[in-house]
Amino acid sequence: MRDTHAATEDAAADDRRTFLRAIGAAATVPALVGTAVGDASSESNAPEPIRSSDEIVPITHGVAVGDVTATTAVVWARAEREATIHVAYAPIESADNAGYERVSVDGETDYTGHVRLTELASGTEYRYFVWAMPATAGPMSKRPLDVDELTADAMPDAIEHGTFLTAPSATEERSVTFAWSGDTWGYGDDPIEPPFPGLRSIAEREPDFFLYHGDTIYADAQTPAGKITENTPLDEALEIYRDKYKEMRDPPASVAERTNLRELLESTSVYTVWDDHEVINNFAGPIEPLMPEGRRAFREYWPLDRDEDAAPGDSNRFYDSFRWGKHVELFLIDTRQYRDPNVELDSKTLLGREQREWLKDALADSDATWKVLASPAPLGYPSDSWATPADRTGYEAELLELVEYVQTEEIANLVVVAGDVHKSVVGAFDPDDDGEFEFVEAVAGPLGAPSGPADEQYAPLNPTTFFAKGEYANFGTVEVAESGEAITIGIYDEFGDEQFTTEVQATDIDPGLTPTDSIESSFDEGTDGWLVSQNGGSDQPEYYETGGNPGGHIGDEENQGGIAWYYQAPFSYLGDRESFYGGTLSFDLRQEQPDQQFDAEPIEGGDVLLAGDGTQLVYEFRDPEQVPGEEWTSFEVPLTASVPWIDLTSQEPLATEERFRNVLADLTVLRIRGEYRSGDDASYLDNVVLSK
Which SMART domains match (predicted)? Predict the structure, then answer.
């Protein structure tokens, strides 16, 4: 057996030799070598000599590399005090192409710094070294560097180092592997404390990169760094946010020796996404007073480079795309900074108009085999974001817009990776019910926060669930083969033990729309994705295998004190349905205990509600006999302005053909009234058909 102490000494010696070669080579690059000491005619990029460890300012919280492309990367570090942070780097295979950069830091950024490396070789593994020296009073003079001046006692203890892989170029056929997870340290009354084995397990897998997918801190949970509340003064909030990031890299000794985050960040690069707990639980963009301080700390403590017009770490734009060879493009989105509050608005946004249009255009323009969308919260699993059936109306209209765009532009091989919900769930979605999946989604996490049982995926998107498990810490992996023919999704527990794996072929995801003359829900095999909507919220209806007209049907029982509730159609009915103008909507209804019709005001939604393009249209059955009874009653509603559809959003009381067509062309809501009693009621629905 090899002596562990000897192995450690050997590794340290190798690091020292590699560092000497890298910084020595960097100093001999013509552009970096000056004429003579004291010649300050122009500022040089050559490193200062290190004569002893006493001259080095400590790097306090490790190092990280992020937002890697084929030719660039950003190195992050934090010095103990005002200093100049230096970075030397070179390909692991050869120090001949070494480089060197530096940046000055001070208290304005909490002594954190971002160093952008350029002109890197694609698909190449690099080693880098980071150290800090006292800040100089003026511009550094040009001079050649004498490597012999670098003393052994200054290395490697005072010099941090790590490795990263640059992305293959967009034309290179290379396999790509990455891991993702999030949700670490500090949630609830009894938070899970470090170390977090999942971070170590991810590092041991040696992925090409790590996607740190939201809730990288829990600012609003009690940890030694403090706790953010809605009453935290702004001048105190920034320091708490900063301390949260520090403790995630170096926890107090009384809690744990390590979190394992530093070790992971030293072994690979990272793309970091934020979610709500980087600021405060479920915050909504511009209306949150604490957001600027939370955003500033997030920007300071992660190696971000997502705005070509800004220096690394200076931009508040957190969304961008990163290409990894011919077969993979990673799209990072920000679902917090621009979102509307989740209240009952006619239209709400998670992304904001500018980001939404960027995402659509970027997806359409990508020629990568696989488009990997990194959404902090799932598209197809209920949360406080895209789909919120238990909390008001959610942001389903924007989700529908994105799904419809994927269909109409035929954006093939879309895979969503997500976090936030503290479950591991893998599934695929066929929202238009044409037998072809529009996208696959995999959800992973948490790494450190508590986890509950897994729930069902969002029914209106017509999901097929491959795997669902909760109540454990976990992470996910993605591997794309060199040929690009398949993508493999894996879920692992925090110790690296496989929980689930599946391979998806490129031919398994076909987003093209299939023309149809009718859309039907017979409910003979399930709820077909329908929801029950009431009081601004929605939930799953009850499913009955028998007793329909005929076969299965759905229903609900509610006592809402006279507030009308509705059956809400799934995504297969929505989108561009202008071709159905002049057609019909038919359905069967039954009441368990009928009495007089409950006369809901039209603003409550009438008997049938259609919404889209900022317009709401309602239709009411005026005939007293057109009230659901204890037996099944059939209804047929003409989809035309030649019958009285009430326009709730216009000064004109009745819908015009133009406005009706506009609604159908952008149909975001179709609801059928379920309640026809004041007080206790039970209603049942069957045989819904939208036909031309």
Answer: LamB
